[in-house]
DNA sequence: CCGGAAGTTGCGCGACACGCATAATTTCGT
DNA sequence: ACGAAATTATGCGTGTCGCGCAACTTCCGG
């Protein structure tokens, strides 16, 4: 078993029962870690508790995650990466902002709004914020590819795709912080859309320059 | 003694000898930590080594930093925060991109280019990347204020200042990654400027909307 | 159905963050 | 300039933690 971060999503990629069980265990561990952290606070969560909650040995827990933070954030990172993948799957003709909206709607379809308490913890707890930010940057790669596919630019040579991708994830992060303000009642997707719209002129300007 | 993160820069702010010694110790510890990490690799740096290198007891080291990563990144975070402060000190009439250029030139005046090996370590080592990203987001606050001062918008109500601030720091981060590519020979400040220029249209669009 | 691969578990070690108590040092009022 | 108060440095002990190692168990392919 490897804890290779790159395999975390591709766990169900190839073989059958084995990989599925692995992913299930990882998700169970992450769910347990998040639940306990929300219940009793990050400080009062022992590794053994997480393992027990997920029904595995503490040693096995450490085979999947090398820190509580990683365990707690995994589900959210997974969700962000799903959005990134969904985005890359949208037709390249579709405008970026619209594609992002669809990708998010796809992810949050049916389900409720994202949990504010969880997000608040991710941001306020210093130990989690680092992992949270790392997770966000992990989406920038796929996002840059999606952007490159739309603009026809090469991410290796031209700065634009990666810069815009980073700007978009940053906008999403900023939107999240704004969404968490108690006065805000607008749905999450709408706030994100507004934030992204603020940097959309950069994308349009680049299109114009390219044409 | 507190390790309050908010006091890290303001250590020399008020009182005299006491605060200055404190800051000196903190910087010495950070320098030692960074130097050792570069020499023998992050894995082979014990806390005791850092403390010994800085001439303090291991316990004292832990009074200043609660993790190796924090210690290693402190100097860089400090530098980023200085740039943020310098930016906020620029005249509000000055265009944002230009002000950023001046603030960076002010920081890197005389000194050499930033160390590529160090930056590469910050990005490649997962343990450091989280702290590195946290440091970058810490600059977003001052940056947002500088932007708000230029646009006259209120960061509490309007998304724009914070979104643009986050986009700018993201652009700087992306520029850093591009700067680290072996083929790149352009000076750091130039790459950063190019990256920021790519998102500048968003700022101009907002100005236009406001006018 | 069997042999090897992959996953799980228990044990133990090295390291680390931090609370607490004590000594050393700086600051400040007079 | 001197002594009390506040701040800081240090030593020690404790509770965790991450992970290497070596069995043991489960799963997959032929």
From TrEMBL, chains A, B:
InterPro entries reported in the protein's UniProt record: Homeodomain-like_sf, HTH-type_TetR-like_transc_reg, HTH_TetR, MftR_C
DNA-binding found in the keyword field: yes
Pfam (any one): TetR_C_14
UniProt name for this protein: TetR family transcriptional regulator
Lineage of origin: Bacteria, Bacillati, Actinomycetota, Actinomycetes, Streptosporangiales
Entry coiled-coil feature ranges: none
SUPFAM superfamilies with a match to the protein in the record: Homeodomain-like
Binding region for DNA: 46-65
Keywords attached to this entry: DNA-binding, Transcription, Transcription regulation
Domain HTH tetR-type intervals: 23-83
Domain of life: Bacteria
């Amino acid at each position: 078993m490897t804890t290779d971060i790159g395999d975390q999503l591709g766990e169900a990629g190839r073989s059958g029962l084995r990989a599925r069980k692995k992913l299930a265990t990882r998700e169970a561990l992450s769910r347990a870690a998040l639940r306990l952290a929300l219940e009793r606070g990050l400080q009062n969560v022992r590794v053994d508790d997480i393992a027990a909650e997920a029904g595995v040995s503490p040693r096995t827990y450490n085979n999947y995650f090398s820190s509580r933070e990683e365990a707690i954030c995994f589900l959210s990172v997974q969700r962000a990466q799903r959005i990134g993948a969904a985005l890359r799957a949208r037709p390249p003709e579709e405008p970026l902002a619209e594609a992002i909206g669809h990708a998010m709607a796809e992810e949050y379809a049916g389900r409720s709004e994202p949990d504010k308490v969880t997000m608040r913890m991710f941001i306020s707890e210093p130990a989690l914020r680092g992992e949270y930010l790392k997770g966000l940057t992990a989406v920038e790669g796929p996002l840059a590819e999606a952007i490159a596919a739309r603009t026809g630019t090469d991410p290796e040579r031209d700065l634009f795709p990666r810069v815009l991708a980073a700007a978009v994830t940053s906008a999403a992060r900023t939107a999240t912080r704004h969404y968490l303000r108690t006065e805000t009642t607008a749905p999450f997707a709408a706030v994100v859309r507004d934030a992204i719209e603020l940097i959309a002129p950069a994308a349009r300007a680049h299109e114009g320059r390219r044409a």
